[in-house]
Specification:
Number of helices: 8
Helix content: 25-40%
Distance between the termini: 45 Å
Length: 228
């Protein structure tokens, strides 16, 4: 009998100067421990994870310098290959600057939102990364979350986007993570609360793409227990 070929999902984590370190290393660490065989020594990886950035090196928060795996320009050529796009947050002036400048990071997110594909894709924001998503108008009519200290700010961003692009008002709530459901173009929107909540959102993502048992095993390997 032929061996079963397990699906490997392509994950892009979009980096930008000033991105919060744990916002992107947290999801990377979680997803890299998810395997089909639940073997931490010789894992059968579920996710292939790549850092996407405009520049060869990105100085994140704290500051820590991180090298990209692929440029935004090259990632756009492979856009249809990405099953998941993760958008970290950072200080609000930083994330607002990405929107105001209409730079390559913001353009890439919009391209991912509208890219047609025959199967479901996932767009997940961590912490204040939801502000970037909200500015595109994609959160209209959805239930979402962000850092506890930024909930009111996200409401304002989504309200302005609704007035600009149309659609229903966005419900913003305090939560570790929220699955906002699918957009018309087949993108599942997941938003997480602040920083460490990216662990919870990533474990939930793992359960969607594999199983709850695989997600729980990854959490055990990480020795992570989600706050009640």
């Amino acid at each position: 009998m032929a061996a079963t070929i397990q699906r490997v999902y392509d994950v892009g984590i979009l980096l930008f100067p000033g991105a919060d370190l744990l916002d992107f290393t947290g999801p990377h660490g979680v997803l890299s421990h998810v395997s089909y065989n639940n073997n931490p020594v010789s894992p059968d990886h579920v996710f292939r994870i790549r850092f996407i950035a405009a520049h060869e090196e990105i100085t994140a928060s704290d500051p820590v310098t991180v090298k990209r795996h692929i440029s935004i320009a090259d990632a756009r050529k492979e856009l249809e290959d990405f099953d998941v796009l993760i958008v970290p947050g950072g200080p609000l002036p930083v994330v607002q600057g990405l929107v105001d400048s209409n730079g390559p990071e913001y353009q890439f997110i919009k391209s991912y939102i509208h890219e047609s594909k025959n199967e479901e894709r996932v767009l997940m924001s961590i912490c204040s990364g939801a502000f970037i998503l909200g500015s595109t108008g994609i959160l209209a009519g959805k239930t979402v979350t962000t850092h506890t200290l930024a909930l009111d700010g996200l409401k304002d961003v989504c309200h302005r986007a609704t007035k600009l692009f149309g659609g229903s008002e966005t419900k913003v709530m305090k939560a570790r993570y929220v699955d906002g459901g699918l957009t018309k173009s087949g993108v599942r929107i997941i938003t997480t609360g602040g920083i460490s909540c990216g662990f919870d959102g990533s474990l939930y993502l793992a359960s969607l793409k594999t199983s709850e048992s695989a997600s729980n095993f990854a959490a055990m390997v990480l020795e992570y227990i989600a706050p009640v």
